[in-house]
Each structure stands twice: as structure tokens, then as C-alpha cells.
Amino acid sequence: MTGPVTTVVLAKAPEPGRVKTRLCPPATPELAAAIASAALLDTLDAAAGVAGDTVVALTGDRAAAVGAADLAAALDGLAVVAQRGEGLAARIAAAHADAAALHPGRPTLQVGMDTPQATAELLSHCAERLAEPGVDAVLGPATDGGWWVLGLRDPLAATALHGVPMSTAETGDRTLDALRAAGLRVALAEPLTDVDTAAEAVAVAAQVPGSRFARAVAELTLRCPEVSV
Question: What domains sit in the chain, N to C, each tagged with a CATH number?
Fold first, then answer.
């Protein structure tokens, strides 16, 4: 049986003009932030379905976020740590380290807020892969060349990401190379699409009908019927 893991959600408070800016246009900054808020809340729900605890590594002003009250309710009772470090790779490594300090001896499973289609079942499957003999890390490729999930049997191994360029078409491959160069045996999770563009938002929303994310994207397509996959 798989033991508990610490699910780490790396997130940015969904403030208008500071999140999902590639949705604008056709979305307004407020609607883009509403879509980001829905994605984050759905991701927190999925994380809650994984055996163990959730740690949220957060940046931004929660009070200025779209859906601030819903976000506050979702974060109530969860460990929330501030993101720290220069650059995304450093912040990811710090989030794993902070989660390990809060829950010593547990592996970590880290996701962002760009894949609201990642269900509790899928995340639990990643945790199960991480518990398999001969597996030190789980990496889920993203279709844009990045990655959407990183599981580590030893959370401090996230320091291997230092020097890996983030948010590029080579990030996934470079991350895999860095993990293997650090001596880690890596299992790959199924690829998912990160939501960056309006077309990607529509495509992902179709995979999760009835979700907060799908309802928020429906508002986008209602206002902008020309948006399509």
C-alpha cells in the first residue's frame, strides 16, 4: 500500500493582470484571473484526494485575488508557505524543501495550477508510481515541452533543478536529464496540456465538464464565441 505523500501546490494568487496574461485577449484581465482562480481551486480539490497532506507554496496578494473568499476557505486548514528563491527552479526546490520540513520523511508530489484536469485519481497514481521499487522520481511531461508534475522520494533532490531553464520548449527534457544526472531513477507520468492560451483553456475545459474551470471557461466562450481549439 502506498504511504502518505505531501502534495505541494505551487500557486500564484489569481490577481487580475498578474495571472494567465496569455489569455488576454480575448479574455479581460478579470476573466483571465477568474479562470486561474477556478483552476487553482480545482487543483486544491484534487490534491485533497491524495493520501497525506497538502502544502501550498503561494506568491501574490490573496486579498486582491479574484474569488478571494473561496480561496481563503480552500486554504483554511492547509499549510501555506511563501514561495522563495530567485527564479522558478529555485522556488520549486524551496517548496519541496519546505514541505519536507513540515512533514519529515515523506515523499513530495508537486503540481502547479495550470492543469485543472489533473484529478485526485491521476495524482494518486503518480504517488503510487513513486512508491514502486526502483523509482526515485516521477515526472509528468506537458505537451508544450515543459512538465506538470514532479514527484520525489527525497524532496531535497529538487536541488537538481537549479540551472534548468524553466518555461521553455526544452524544460521537460532538460529536467529529465538533470534528475538522471543526479542519479535518480525516473518514471514518467502521462502527458497533460498546460493551460496558457484560450484554445488550450477550451480544450482542457472539455475534459472536465461540470468543474469550476469549465464554468469559468464557458464565460470566456460566451463572450468570445470565436475562441476554439
Answer: 5-222 (3.90.550.10)
